[in-house]
């Protein structure tokens, strides 16, 4: 296939906040991420209207203390370390690479081993249009209310932001850690379900989602939750696990409860679970719009929450590079996140859900609107600057090319002139010489 040098670049529509959209090419997309600006790539979903987020009756006390403590004791740090080591051994898990498909296949087989012999637990690949790395969904079908769904999410892709298609991305923390956190919680939860002839099968449906292409702008989870919305599925809550292994200060170990762009009510429930079942406290923190896959759930009207490894400013700074490695992480900390997952699942698996209302996420206060506006102007300025820079480089190249061609032409005409001169001079000299040679034929 021939690639035309001036072929038009694909443009993507990115949602930087509910009211701020930009059109960019692929390089600009990665450049935004390098600056720490997250977004939802809504190229395929832009025309879809925003859906208000549902509010349900989340428990304000816990009922499964003994069970959760008992299961949590079985969290196996050695197993978690081994799984994470394997996951980070793939050169990259970039969603457009062949390695990314191989790592997904490995994860699929791991999930198969966990769920394979239970008749009401289904494992499905969720394929995407446009790239080969698939998402995965483990569905533990509820025995009473199979349409009430509780989702535990994490993304399994990784990225090196310098050159995504070329450089390695072990992605230990982002998001090998969240993947393994959920893998371990799922393993133990399935083990619990199986006790005494499946007596612990949940009333509601519990789903564990492993998304592809979060790093491309929540692409995998947007496909999943948009499909769920189209099919009118009822997701009662979604808990995201993304970056669960880095501890910046061991003396002040905690988890970070995200409070922006999440369901306030569900987040209150998550705090209750942390206080009850984790050995470490939480700190409230913010991560901006679309900072992980829970953003896709919220955008489709599903209440979601996100708990990260610590206060956002002190999270792992080695992510999105070759330095996001396992040696910088604490498996014990990841285990704390597994407790959060187990506690959340146990306390919601038999809940009789009641819809209490809906909330429009777009209703923002004046300050947020001004902030968005300022950000928009800032982005515009930045883009204009890049454009100007590109134009000046182009002009510079043009001038250089002109000088080069001018020099070449001058040199060439000079050489031709000289050649003519030498030719005429030599010929004339020879003729004169011949004429003056005695005895010549003349
Ligand atoms: Zn991530």
From TrEMBL:
Query: What's the protein name?
Result: Peptide hydrolase
Give the region (Disordered) as residue ranges.
362-386
* Record-listed E.C. numbers: 3.4.-.-
Species the sequence originates in: Henningerozyma blattae (strain ATCC 34711 / CBS 6284 / DSM 70876 / NBRC 10599 / NRRL Y-10934 / UCD 77-7)
Q: The Peptidase M28 domain covers which part of the protein?
A: 137-342
- Identify the PANTHER family for this entry: AMINOPEPTIDASE YDR415C-RELATED, METALLOPEPTIDASE M28 FAMILY MEMBER
Enzyme class at the top of the EC tree = hydrolase
Sorted alphabetically, the keyword list is: Aminopeptidase, Hydrolase, Membrane, Metal-binding, Protease, Signal, Transmembrane, Transmembrane helix, Zinc
GO biological process: one example: proteolysis
Family in the record? Belongs to the peptidase M28 family. M28E subfamily.
- UniProt lists the gene as TBLA0A06920
| One Gene Ontology term of the molecular function aspect | aminopeptidase activity
Q: Where are the transmembrane segments?
A: 393-417
Cofactor or coenzyme needed: Zn(2+)
